[in-house]
Amino acid sequence: MDRDRNHTNRRRSSRAAAEIAEEIQVMTAMVLLSDIDPTIILDVRYATENNFTGQVLYPVAKVYVQRVVAERLADVQSHLRQEGCALKVFDGYRPLSIQKKMWEIVPDERYVADPRKGSRHNRGAAVDVTIVRAADGVELDMGTPYDDFSEKSHTRYSDLPVEILRNRQLLADTMKRFDFLPFETEWWHFDYKEWGRFDILDIPIE
Known about the structure:
The protein is α+β, with helices and mostly antiparallel strands and about 210 residues long. The chain has helices spanning about 1-25, 35, 65-80, 95-105, 160-175, and strands at about 30, 40, 65, 85-90, 125-135, 180-185, 185-190. The chain has a single domain, classed as Muramoyl-pentapeptide Carboxypeptidase, domain 2 (2-Layer Sandwich), CATH 3.30.1380.10. The chain has 5 helices and 7 strands, in the order H-E-H-E-E-H-E-H-E-H-E-E. The strands form 2 sheets. Strands 2-4-5-7-6 form a 5-stranded mixed β-sheet, with helices on one face. The protein has a two-stranded antiparallel sheet with strand order 1-3. A hairpin with a 2-residue loop joins strand 6 (about 180-185) and strand 7 (about 185-190). The longest helix is centred in the first third of the chain and has 26 residues, at about 1-25. The radius of gyration is 20 Å and the shape is globular.
């Protein structure tokens, strides 16, 4: 009887371990953001020359992120829709080789992560975003363009009109509500709170 009970317990433990392993695999899988929520607007600047490098860095205008990150972004989108707004994403996962190119141009850790340490973008756990009006897709005024590497882009910079401060607060509050952490020197950059779970990758964007 005890032998049968022990065998049953082992089978349950093995099944539970297999389920946990499967859940971890699902949770850490990189996905195409548009597959999780096709209503999120994409403006992949690094697939164009309209970015701080002046170069096309990605061959296609796609955004990949970790699955859990994509699911949280879908929650952000759903929440913003209730406010008459929508999410726009500029960047997500970024290959380490691209990080190295960026560092060569702007070797300043306030704005570009040192590739020797890796970026949270390299883990598929960071996103660059803004908010647009749902009715016409016009971006809310955040005071600077995306990738403006000046003090004015810092989250604590307060010498701005009330409307812009309100827009930045809306973005920060909404992202934080769904497990994203703001980055001090870039109002558009947010890290998923458990970014350390994921490895640095150098898989090409295709």
